[in-house]
Amino acid sequence: MFDERSPIYLQIADQIKNDIVSGALAEDEQVMSTNQYAAFYRINPATAAKGFAQLVDEGVLYKKRGIGMFVSPNARDLLRTGRREGFFADVVDPMIREAKALGVPLRDVVQHIREYGDA
Amino acid sequence: MTTSTVAQTALGVRAENLTVRFGGVPALDRLDLRLAPGKIHGLLGRNGSGKSTLAAVLAGFRQPDDGRVLIDGAGLGTPMPPYENAVVTSRVCLIRESGDLVDSAPVRQVLGLAASLRPYWDAELAAELLDRFEVPAGKRISKLSRGKRSALGVVLGLASRAPLTIFDETYLGMDVPSRNVFYDALLADYAEVPRTIVLSTHLVSEVSTLLEEVVILDNGRLVTQSPVDALRGRGAAMVGPAALVDKFAADFTVLAEERLGGTKSVTVLGDLDPALRAEAAASGLEIGLVGLQDLFVHLTAPAPKGDRR
Fold it and tell me: From which domain of life does this come (chain A) (predicted)?
C-alpha cells in the first residue's frame, strides 16, 4: 500500500490528488476524517493529519469547522493544470529516450499512440 | 485531538544519563532520551540492544544504576521517577511477552486484578477485545496457547488505558490476523483516548506505519531518534566508479560500503537535495533510495573492525 522509501504523508497527499484528478473524488465531496483514514489504511493518525494539512495548504482541500474536510471546487482544474505543465517533460520525454535507446522507431510509437488513443 | 486531552491522558518521559548494568556489563549506557507525550513511539533495536531494559526502567520494574528517568504529565504535578512510586506505576502499563501473569489464575480473575490496580481501566473495552481475540474468560492462564496469552496481554495493555503504555514485543506470539486485530484496536482506541504508546520491536516494516516517532537503540546507546516519516527517504545507496562515489559520499554519514574492482557501492544517511541528485546522475553515479527496514539494519549492524561510528 505505502512505499517505505518516501514520507507517508506525501504518499497520502498524492493518493488523494490522484483520486481527484481521476474523478473518483468529486469537487465539494467530503473526504474521510483523519481518524477514519488512519484506521482504514492502518497508519498513525498524526501522519494522516499531516498529509491532509498539506492538501489544505495547497488549496486542494478545504475545512468546514466541526464538519470535516472537502475537495475544493477548483481542485481538479488546479491539479490538472499543474500536471499538464510537467506532462511532456515527465512522461513523454523519458518515453522517447527509452524508445531511442531500444531502437524503437518513433513512427511506431506515434502509430501506437494513435491506435491506443482511439481504442 | 486537542492539547488539553493529551495533557490529561498522556505521560512524557525524560531519561538522563540512564545506565543499567548486568554483572558490570551495561545494558543501557548513558542514555539521554525524551519521549513526547501523546505520540506512538517505536522502540527499535536488535535483540539485546537494551529495549526491554529501558521498558522495565520506565515501568518502575527496575532501578537505574546511574542517571535517572523522570515521568511527567497526566496530573502528576512534578516529574517523578517511576521506581517504587505507585502514583506513577499505576499510570504506566508495561506488557511483556512473558505476560507476567499468574499461571494458575483464570483469565477473568486476571482482568479483575487489573481493574482494581488501573485507575483508567475500561471493563467494556476489555470484554469486547477478549471477544475479538477469542480468549475464553473462564480458562486458566496455564491452559492458554502462546497466541492467546499474547492476546490477553494486548487486552490488558489496551483496556488499562494507561497514560504511558508500553508493549514490549508482546505481539510476537500472535499470528498475522491477530496482530492485525491488535493494530486496528490500538489505532481505534488511541484515536479515542490519546496517550503515549511505546511499541518495542525488531520487526520494523510491520509496525512502521503505526508510528509517529522512532527511537533506535544499539548496544544500550541511542543511535537516532526521529519522526519516522523523516527517516523515510533519508537513506540512499550510491553505486559507481570508486573515486566518484567517494567524492559524493564525502558529505554524508556512510553506513555501509562495498567494493567490487573499480566499482563501489555505499549506503549513506542524509538529505540528498534534487540539485545534488541531478549532478550525481549527470556524472554517471547511480542513486537509489533505501527503505526503512534496510536503513534500520544498517543503523544497527555491527560496525566494521576498528571503526565505530
Answer: Bacteria
Tell me how far apart the alpha carbons of residues B158 and B155 are, in angstroms, rounded to a whole number: 5
Chain A contact residues (CB < 8 Å to B): 2-9, 35, 38-39, 41-47, 50
Q: How far is CA B84 from the centre of its chain?
A: 24
B192 in the same domain as B140:
yes
Asked whether residue B7 carries a pLDDT value surpassing 70, the answer given is: no
The answer to whether A43 contacts B209, with C-beta atoms less than 8 Å apart, is: yes
Whether B291 sits inside 8 A of A4 (CB atoms) is: yes
Which residues in B lie closer than 8 A to residue A90 (C-beta atoms)?
none
If asked whether residues B88 and B63 sit together in one domain, one would say: yes
pLDDT recorded at residue B6: 56
Domain enclosing residue B49, as ranges: 3-229
> Would residue B47 count as lying in a domain?
yes
Beta pairing class for B263-269 and B235-241: antiparallel
Residue B298: inside a domain, yes or no? no
In a domain? residue B216: yes
Angstrom distance (rounded) from CA B199 to CA B254: 28
Q: Given B177, B209, B229, which residue is the final one in a domain?
A: B229
List B106's β-bridge partners, or say none: B140
CATH number at residue B69: 3.40.50.300
Mean pLDDT of A9-28: 93
What is the tens place of the pLDDT at every residue in B132-165?
A: 999 999 999 999 998 999 999 999 999 999 999 9
- The tens digit of pLDDT for each residue in B47-105 reads 889 999 999 999 999 999 999 999 998 778 889 999 999 989 999 999 998 767 888 89
When divided into structural domains, chain B yields a total of 2
Same domain, B154 and B266: no
Mark whether B202 and B84 lie in a shared domain: yes
pLDDT band at B309 (very low <50, low <70, confident <90, very high): very low
Same domain, B95 and B123: yes
Question: How far is the CA of B55 from the CAs of B42, B46, B82, B173, B186, in angstroms?
Answer: 12, 14, 11, 19, 19
Instruction: For residue B33, give the H/E element and its range.
Output: strand B25-35
The reply to whether B87 touches chain A by the CB within 8 Å rule is: no
pLDDT digits (tens, 9 = 90+) for B181-192: 999 999 999 999
ipTM of the complex: 0.80
